[in-house]
């Protein structure tokens, strides 16, 4: 229950709905009990004339309030029976109907208010998880399966939602119903009520024995649910590879293995959960039978209890069964909900390793340059950069080249502070980026990656990500700079054309030019280009390269390049091997040295 208690804090903004639900549940439990107690005078007065009251009851103080209330009711019914038996019968039936109506009305209202509380809490939980996902560093997601994360914000939250409803019924409606019922039963017959108490501890013991492993099994089910969602996500993202390599059978086997494991876990889990209801019902009926035997003797042999009272007592005894069964079901649901809450809270309580320092400042302008000084960095155990230093003066273009795995893209990740350096420092205008707020730091930068990352939305919505208040004229100008307007203007709906999932309705070159237009519209002083042309054909590369050159005019640029033809005009080319600088200089200077850069150019000339 510890995890579930933490989730419950989200109920505070909606506590007024909780209070209203509690009030309605009190009335529900009260009228639920009264509806059975009303049967006693009905049976006694109609079928036993000796029970009729002919004298008006006299108020004798609060100590005799029970007798006064009962005698007043008996007197009113007796008077009606004496004058009109059919009318009295109708009167009594109306009272019973009203009591049951009020019971169900307050039951509905309790659920009505509870719905606002429950759905409000789940909205806030989902919002909190999503906000945390946006806050967490990129390194967190490189270690987690996407499907598992999706499962936590969907299936696990739904599980908590169902459990949340159950626990509120568990701690409010059902216990109150049981309490009011037991009070009424004690008033009717303390001796006979003792037998009812046999049911509750036995039921609780048996059900707790059945449900001990529920939380563990529920956690396993939720983890496997995340696993098969990951397989689905990978399948949808990589359909071309799966089909191209005839890997359908392999993926099918992998998916069916996961769903098979999930089926086995759920079979065991649900069967144990389903055992709660028949177990509690059987135990309840067993107690009812004992009450029939023992109470029957009190009515027929000892004559210490009236028949009508005994019938009402039986009804009250059976009424305990329903809330008792609901409590047993809710206890199972709580086990599952607690497991789901643990998985949700694992994300919500995850500390971000990339966060603003308490004294972090906002920077609004870029005046001097970027300095990377003696930086070392490693992903887990693999060292990627060793004592790396470069200077990027304002208005200059610095190119990073080298073989795959030499650490080029890592520089982009560190400058944008997607990761923090292990050693050394990176500064902007002489201020360490750890002392600059992440928001203002990234406002200075535009990013164009190798894979054009686009959203399943219109061209307009994709372009304005970095500048939401952009005018249509500004958007079109950005598209023109990126050489994208030539194809956008010919689309059926122009800027409002939906480009599909990840922009898959467009070609690779078109997608990349849109991502450049997005960076152009943001108009940042520092531009970071991470192999922006490496995945393109020659014609698309020419158009994109021209767009990049247009964009980099009068800007500070860090260009990570695979195709060396794209960075020949850079102010400084830095050649990297295994996280270290081996050469640096202008294009022609490096060719004359005939070192590592010369070899890279020679190899590409044969491509």
Task: Tell me what the structure shows.
- This protein is α/β, with parallel strands linked by helices and 607 residues long.
- The chain has two domains: 284 residues, ABC transporter transmembrane region fold, CATH 1.20.1560; 236 residues, P-loop containing nucleotide triphosphate hydrolases (Rossmann fold).
- It is built from 22 helices and ten strands.
- It has a six-stranded mixed sheet, sandwiched between helices. A four-stranded antiparallel sheet has the order 2-1-4-5, covered by helices on one side.
Spell out the key features of this protein.
ATP binding, single chain, 607 residues, ABC-type oligopeptide transporter activity, transmembrane, Rossmann fold, 4-stranded antiparallel sheet, ATP hydrolysis activity, alpha/beta, ABC transporter transmembrane region fold
Q: How does the SSE layout of this entry go?
A:
Blueprint lengths: L1 H7 L6 H23 L1 H9 L17 H19 L1 H51 L2 H5 L3 H43 L1 H21 L3 H24 L1 H6 L3 H27 L1 H25 L6 H42 L20 E11 L2 E12 L3 E6 L5 H8 L7 E6 L2 E2 L5 H6 L1 E4 L10 H5 L8 H10 L3 H4 L19 H15 L3 E5 L7 H15 L3 E5 L11 E6 L2 E6 L1 H7 L2 H9 L3
Helix pairs in contact: 1-13, 2-5, 2-7, 3-4, 3-13, 4-5, 5-7, 7-8, 7-9, 7-13, 8-12, 9-11, 9-13, 12-13, 17-19, 19-20
């Amino acid at each position: 229950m510890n995890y579930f208690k933490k989730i419950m804090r989200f109920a505070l903004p909606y506590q007024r709905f909780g209070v209203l639900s509690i009030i309605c549940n009190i009335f529900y439990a009260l009228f639920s009990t009264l509806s059975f107690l009303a049967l006693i005078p009905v049976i006694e007065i109609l079928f036993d004339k000796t029970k009729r009251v002919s004298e008006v009851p006299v108020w004798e103080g609060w100590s005799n309030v029970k007798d006064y209330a009962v005698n007043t009711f008996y007197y009113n019914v007796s008077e009606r029976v004496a004058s009109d038996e059919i009318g009295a019968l109708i009167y009594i039936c109306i009272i019973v109907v009203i009591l049951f109506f009020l019971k169900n009305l307050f039951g509905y209202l309790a659920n009505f208010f509870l719905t606002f509380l429950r759905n409000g809490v789940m909205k806030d939980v989902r919002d909190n998880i999503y906000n945390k996902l946006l806050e967490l560093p990129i390194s967190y997601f490189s270690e987690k399966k996407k499907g598992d994360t999706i499962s936590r914000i969907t299936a696990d939250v739904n599980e908590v939602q169902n459990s949340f409803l159950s626990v509120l019924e568990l701690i409010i409606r059902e216990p109150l119903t049981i309490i009011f019922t037991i009070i009424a039963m004690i008033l009717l017959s303390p001796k006979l009520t003792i037998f009812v108490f046999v049911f509750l501890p036995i039921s609780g013991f048996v059900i707790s024995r059945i449900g001990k492993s529920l939380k563990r099994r529920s956690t396993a089910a939720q983890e496997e649910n995340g696993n098969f969602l990951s397989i689905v996500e990978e399948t949808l993202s990589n359909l071309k590879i799966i089909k191209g390599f005839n890997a359908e059978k392999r993926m099918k086997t992998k998916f069916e293995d996961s769903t098979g494991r999930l089926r086995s876990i759920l079979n065991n889990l649900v069967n144990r959960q389903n055992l709660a209801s028949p177990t509690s019902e059987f135990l309840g009926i067993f107690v009812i039978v004992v009450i029939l035997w023992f109470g029957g003797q009190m009515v027929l042999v000892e004559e210490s209890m009236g028949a009508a009272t005994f019938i009402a007592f039986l009804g009250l005894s059976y009424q305990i069964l329903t809330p008792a069964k609901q409590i047993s079901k809710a206890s199972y649901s709580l086990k599952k909900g607690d497991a789901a809450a643990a998985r949700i809270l694992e994300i919500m309580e995850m500390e971000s390793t990339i966060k603003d320092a308490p004294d972090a400042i906002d920077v609004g302008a870029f005046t001097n340059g970027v300095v990377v000084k003696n930086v070392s960095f490693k992903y887990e155990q693999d060292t990627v950069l060793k004592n790396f230093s470069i200077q990027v003066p304002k208005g200059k273009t610095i190119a990073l080249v080298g073989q795959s795995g030499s650490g080029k893209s890592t520089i982009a990740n560190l400058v944008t502070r997607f990761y923090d350096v292990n050693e050394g420092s990176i500064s902007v205008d002489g201020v360490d980026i750890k002392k600059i707020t992440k928001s203002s730091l990234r406002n200075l930068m535009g990013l164009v990656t190798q894979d054009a990352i686009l959203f399943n939305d219109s061209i307009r919505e994709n372009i304005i990500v970095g500048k939401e208040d952009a005018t249509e004229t500004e958007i079109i100008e950005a598209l023109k700079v990126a050489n994208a307007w030539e194809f956008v203007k010919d689309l059926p709906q122009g800027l409002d054309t939906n480009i599909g999932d990840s922009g898959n309705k467009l070609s690779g070159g078109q997608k990349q030019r849109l991502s450049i237009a997005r960076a152009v519209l943001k108009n940042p002083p520092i531009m970071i280009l991470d192999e922006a042309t490496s995945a393109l054909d020659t014609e698309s590369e020419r158009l994109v390269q021209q767009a990049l050159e247009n964009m980099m005019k009068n800007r500070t640029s860090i260009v990570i390049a695979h195709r060396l033809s794209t960075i020949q005009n850079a102010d400084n080319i830095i050649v990297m091997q295994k996280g270290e600088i081996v050469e640096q200089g202008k294009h022609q200077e490096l060719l004359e040295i005939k070192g590592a850069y010369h070899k890279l150019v020679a190899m590409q000339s044969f491509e």
